[in-house]
Amino acid sequence: MQQFPCPWCGNRAEGEFHYAGDAGIDRPERTVDDKAWAQYLHFRRNAKGAARELWIHSAGCGRWIVVSRDTVTHVVTGSEPMV
Question: The whole model's pTM is what?
Fold first, then answer.
């Protein structure tokens, strides 16, 4: 099983976390048109390789973290608190 480094709890099993999406995606303003809102909701880059993802440590401290990992090899290179 994959291990994720929680900044507060240390290394923990992936099953303690829940994926919440790509990190660094800015939510559009409330005044955007339907096309821009659909773009935000349904279209992502989804490229192979290095990625930054939002995860919540739901079975642990309950805090949000940003995990850096490779989507091809699943190697986790680090994590940091979500700001």
Answer: 0.84
